Structure formats: structure tokens, C-alpha cells
Amino acid sequence: MAYVDIPFYLAVAAVGFGLSLMTYRLFARHYEWPMGAWQENHPSLPVTIGFLSLLVGALFAAARWVDGGMYASAAIGVFGLALAIFWTSFLRVGSQISLFLAPVSAGLLFVAWNFGTSALQYHTVRSEIRELRQQLEDQYGLKKADPLQRKSPLN
Fold first, then answer.
1. Could you tell me the CA-to-CA distances from 133 to 84, 119, 127, 129, 137 in Å, in that order?
2. DSSP alpha helices (H): ranges in the chain?
3. Rg of the chain over all Cα atoms, to the nearest angstrom
4. What's the whole-model pTM score?
């Protein structure tokens, strides 16, 4: 199974969507783009949500830097900035969905960072049985019989 660094992608999303939320009002007023009710009537709310999301992503990147992942933490900043530029400039009204995506990505990043990515995994009864079977096989040295090596009753 391939390894996917879920916290990395969540940090990029938190930085990108947070930065987009913080700056959208400035660009929207300058270029006369449409703004939602929150952006027009309560401009401090989207900026605050964006700042907190950006802060969670930046703190995660700083923690990665301290742990020796300086390239990964630099990539979080670069890809987050690229996401913010793309999200704000090409998807002008996409900033409204950032009001939802920024806190969700920051919250999921917080959960994955503090409790591990297993807290985000979806388990089914079948996966639980598969894990229990694997533990029993490992503990008692049981192996599955290879269907190609079965002897026929005529031998």
C-alpha cells in the first residue's frame, strides 16, 4: 500500500485556503469582484478564520522543520501559496467555499497532528476481522494454505 502523507496535504490546504480567505476582500474590492455577505458585512470574521487556519498550517510546517523535514515544511508554504493564488485569482468566487474548507482542513490537520492519522481512518467490521485474523496468524504461526500446493485425494 502506498504511503500518503495526509497531514502534509491538510497543512497545504489550511495554508492555502486560509491565505485566500485573508486576502480575498482586498482583491475583490480592487478588481470589483463579487463578495458574499460575510465578506461585505463582517470582514473581520473571514480574516480571523483565515488567520487561524493559516496559523495551524504554519505551526505544523514549523514542527516539521524542527523534526528535520525542512524540504517538506518549505513545500507546505510554497504549495499553500500556490493554492491561495490559484484559488483567489482563477476561482474568484471560490473564496466563499473557503469559509468552509479552511476551518475543516485546519481542524482535520489538528486531529491528525495530535492524535495520529489513524484517528481519521474509517474502519469497517470487515477490516477489524481482517486485522484480528492477521494477529492470530502471526501469534500462532498459522499460514494460509497455498491453493497451488494442495494435494489431490488421488495421490
1. 46, 22, 10, 6, 6
2. 6-31, 37-41, 44-66, 70-85, 95-115, 125-140
3. 23
4. 0.74
